[in-house]
# Entry
Amino acid sequence: MAKRKSAFSFSHMLLTLALNFVAACRHNTASSENMSVGVPAPANAPPSAMGFAVMAVGNVETTLVKRVAHHLESTLWVPTRVFPPPPDLVTGLTPERVKALATHRRFNDVCLVILANAPQTAFPAEFILKEQSLACLNTASLRSGSPTDRPEDPFARRVEKETIRLVATLLGMPPCPMPLCALCTAEDEEHLDAKGRTPCPPCLGKLEDILRARGIKLTVDNPSSVLCKPSGCMQHVTTR
# Structure
């Protein structure tokens, strides 16, 4: 009788372990599915998991996409990742097809930035969907008339500046009246090339407050110490 009881206990233990293993697998699968497109954030989503997302459509150079992602992260102190481009959006871009990409934004994406490369005749220079936290920048609109007498790449810097402005707009920031601030709306190509690649210190301070208020963990503990050096805060506004 004791042997039967012992055997039963052992079998019960094995069954319990098996059920726990199946439950754990289902939990991991559910967690994986919750990271997929269009899933709302869980109530206990860790702030450290939140960040910006960048996606390119329409034959945008990989180096440019990585450069923009790095610039976003190093300027606004928010982790930024690059989405692989959808294979069916290499050609035939339309605003409607790009707007549909809002479903690719995961719950921990603060916003999704689309870098497009489409003919200007059929595609706007930019558009923003605030409710979907999506912004699209048509990089083709920034190539025309780029000066060629500078040692740096003016086109890539234009994309950096306008991406920062669009992301700040999605976060609720208004245009900045300071001509050198990246959040200032450029009146023409000359102004675009002259304004800074980063927001001015007052705008950066406001952006920091917005990001912290939304529970987003920044990559820098004390951004003010990075921005304001003894030589003056305004040096953070870089133009070249």
